[in-house]
Amino acid sequence: MSERIVVVGGGLGGVRSAERLREMGFDGQITILSAERHLPYHRPCLSKQIITGEWHPDDSLLSFSGDLDAEWRLNSPALHLDPKKQSVWVPGGEEIKYDGMIIATGVDAKAMGGAPRHDPRVHVLRTLDDAVAIRKNIRQSQGLVAVIGGGFIGCELACSVRHMGRDVALIVRSPALLGGVVGDKIGKKITEAHIHHGVRLATGVGIKHWVRQPGGIGIHLSDGQVFFASCVVLAVGAAPAVDWLRGSGLDISDGVLCDATNHVVGAENIVACGDVARWPNMRFNGALRRVEHWLNAVEGGRAAAENLLVGRNHAKTYTPVPRFWTEQYGMRVQGAGLPVLGTDTTDVNGLTGFIANGKLVGIVGLEQPGRIITETPELFRQNKVEESLTVWTQPAEETKVAAAPESLPTTAIPVPEPVAARASSVPPSVSSSMSPPLQRRRHSRSRPEMVRVGGGRARP
Q1: Which of 60, 260, 266, 457 lies at 20 to 30 Å from 120 by C-alpha?
Q2: Quick one: where's region Disordered (predicted)?
């Protein structure tokens, strides 16, 4: 019987990891469990082209290798994992055995205490269906659209709503948009752009209470302001999608705890990637953290697949320099590194540089893609991988993390020679991987008969 690798999560990280398995010569069965009814799609467009109607939902579908030859189980979320039995359960009580697993479940939109989430006019934005529902609500109503949250998604949503010609209020608990992630100078320019385009901005406020009425929802703020909205979108952050791992014995206190090679701590033959993985990046002090960026799902998914195949003892550390971007009112903000680590800022050839312990740990630029490309290698140079550290460590500041596990037996899933793993620390091209192409995307698959919905029969 051939080996089976189960990929839990049908998004970007899951499909890119599955592609890498095939590239490395894995010829066993790949089963992809997805909680969604859609094939993988381009998530960054949800707050932009899908909301505005510029793209049809089908335009958002990701392209992937025609040689993937995977069994897609749509509408089949993983419900429970038993690492000792190497089994995962899906709806209907079906038990699926695996020889290797890649966890790529991503994150879910955070709930907001007190918000009337059962009201059909109150939304979150995480999935394609969420975006379609928001767009429908906006088009079928009149009046104000209220967006709660001033991060990337909240700001992009406000921009998209203004593009549609609708009034929008952006309600933010922090005193500045983007939470200072991009630096004060760029953050101020983004704030000014929202005001210039007519966004009603309320910063540094909380929500005292909500009043549901037939014509809309009243939002009473801590500073005395009251907004009356026909549509509300909660964009207050995300939480790792790990509920299905409760009772598995794994550390899921903030995502799935991994070592520096993205092998899951406390389990054999399981790796994790993307937003859900919490691992020590040895390029940036080795502290445990998650990275919720598009490119991390791509690079992390590929690296996790490589390390799963070669086994824990031969795996390479995953030490990326993260990159991110946002586009609002035609202005493109791009960043690299981990600006959140910065304790001070400086000018880096016209970019905002973030400094920690005398080293450059992040850069952010507004409409300066060329400089971002030329300065990103400096982040690699100043932040060398700390080879002297073990592949998993418990930093002093980590108090909720389980103690380092005992050595686990390592079983490598056979990979045909002469293919070798290459969990690269440096991406092959910063310029080509800075952001996904914005052209319309179509999916492809080599064996339509392998696509299945839930536990039902295969359908063409």
Answers
A1: 60
A2: 400-460
pTM for the model: 0.86
Separation of alpha carbons 79 and 243, rounded Å? 8
φ, ψ dihedrals at 56, nearest 5°? -80, 150
- pLDDT tens digits along 310-357: 999 999 999 999 999 999 999 999 999 999 999 999 999 999 999 999
Residue 449 one-letter amino acid: E
Long-range CB pairs of 77-81 (<8 Å, 24+ gap) are 77/33, 77/34, 77/35, 77/244, 78/8, 78/33, 78/35, 78/105, 78/244, 79/244, 80/244, 80/247, 80/248, 81/244, 81/245, 81/248, 81/250
Give the other-Cβ count within 10 Å of 400's Cβ: 9
- pLDDT class for 412, splitting at 50, 70, 90? low
**Using N-to-C axis directions, what is the helix angle for 152-163 and 184-196, rounded to 10°?**
20
* Average pLDDT over every residue of 112-135: 96
The alpha-helical segments, DSSP class H, found in 122-183 are 128-139, 152-163
Residue 109: pLDDT above 70? Answer: yes
Residue 163, phi then psi, degrees to nearest 5: -60, -30
pLDDT at 64: 87
Amino acid at 249: G
Average pLDDT over residues 178-193: 90
| Dist CA 223 CA 207 (whole Å) | 9
Q: Quote the CA–CA distance of 213 and 216 in Å, as a whole number.
A: 5
Look at the block and give the residue holding tokens 């419900």.
79
Length of the chain: 460
- Partners of 101 in the beta sheet? 6, 270
Judge whether residue 422 has pLDDT over 90. Answer: no
- 8 Å CB contact between 49 and 55: yes
Per the structure block, which two tokens stand in for 40? Answer: 């993988």
